[in-house]
Amino acid sequence: MVSVSDEVSTYSKEASSKMFQDAEVVIPGGVTANIKHFAPFPIFMKEGRGSKLIDVDNMEYIDYSLCYGALITGHGHPQIMQAAMKQMNDTGTIIFGTPHELEIKMAKKLIELYPSMEQIRYTNSGTEAILLAIRLAVAYTKKSKIAKFEGHYHGGINQVLVSVNPSPDSAGHAKQPTPVTESSGIPSDETDNTIVLPFNDLEATETILREHKDELAAVILEPVQGGFIPAKKEFIHGLKKLTDELGIVLIFDEVKTGFRVALGGAQSVYGVEPDITALGKVLGGGFPVGAVGGKKELMMQSAANAKGDVFAVGGDSDKTRDVVFHSGTYNGHPIVLAAGLETIRLLEEGNLLNVLFSHTKHLRSRLEKLYASYHIEMKTIGMGSIFNIIFTTEPIKNYRDMWQANTAFREAIDQELLHLGVYLKPLNRYSMSIAHTLEDIDRTVDAHEVALNNVLKNNYRTAK
């Protein structure tokens, strides 16, 4: 096995520290997305190749963040880079600003992989995809409220930035969670239209949905919460049956799980077809992207026509109220779609995805055995190419179960790993790529052992 030196753990990150101080002067909090921040300061990177990142202090890391899961082929895959460059060189431009053939080609491929998606619209992020999905559901049902599950994240949209990470003191009863707003600057009348449900508890969810069925346009969920807590099969099938009965649109947020748990997403694993699906991350091959697909009758509400153009002056422009508005200068960007199509082609090639899943399972097994050899209660949970490490003896079915986990011990391990050449934002999930090798796995397990010993020396203890 490849050894990891204890000396590496003393590595200094002076350049990152200085760069963060500079960033704080011109960027609020020093980062352009809150998720990128962690204590004492985030690490600034300058290069990425394959499974590796190199920071501004010239330290190399095995990367398990992979841009929060977007880079399933690793950094700078040559065929994806070539596809993007070829698109620009062949067409002589970066973007047309008009419809183009790749929009049709990608839509056909997505419909092939996700049969629940009968028609497709593109966006520039997963957050934008969720925004459109909700708007379509509200227009279709003529109802204003939506329901989302506690612990599930659906982007920075006011109506769903609720009960993502509530504290035990504010979360309310497990069977009927209290909506908790996760940001300042959100008008209360927007979150008044959000009902919070308990994940993986069908009985309690049914009670709440039946009580509010006449107000609810949609139920939205991550079929694998946070990308690592899977829905129970009976729960997700029961939810589908219930929403169909009550006339509530079922939205799957597969921004994290699309292509990562299966080519056809979590819905193909569970055998459930939602009414609307939102995709992102992997779909762009590293470029910003989102897509919304669903039943034709839902999607056609956004169909443009000459009499429903919000930008038309005079005439019948007042008819825009009959059309679900959806637009965006960069929607369906040709370079993004070229990179995305090449990503899908690579994942469809041979046995590549199965090898990725096998490597992920191998790393999970090795880590579980390592911690067990130290008599430390640890489990990995996840699906496909994504998982998380949880220090607990209890089963993890939903957000509240995570309260029982020893997160202080996990964070201490993660901080040590950053000094040992394993990159992951502390407490985040692991994402694997086709670029990760068995040698990477060996080095990762070795680093965990060094990190574990360093943490134990500092008198950290795991939960009993």
TrEMBL record:
It catalyses: (S)-4-amino-5-oxopentanoate = 5-aminolevulinate. Pathway: Porphyrin-containing compound metabolism; protoporphyrin-IX biosynthesis; 5-aminolevulinate from L-glutamyl-tRNA(Glu): step 2/2. CDD domains: OAT_like. GO terms for molecular function: glutamate-1-semialdehyde 2,1-aminomutase activity; pyridoxal phosphate binding; transaminase activity. Its cofactor is pyridoxal 5'-phosphate. Keywords: Cytoplasm, Isomerase, Porphyrin biosynthesis, Pyridoxal phosphate. Gene3D superfamilies: Aspartate Aminotransferase, domain 1, Type I PLP-dependent aspartate aminotransferase-like (Major domain). Its EC number is 5.4.3.8. Residues 166-191 are annotated as: Disordered. Pfam families: Aminotran_3 (PF00202). NCBIfam families: PRK00062.1. Belongs to the class-III pyridoxal-phosphate-dependent aminotransferase family. HemL subfamily. This is glutamate-1-semialdehyde 2,1-aminomutase.
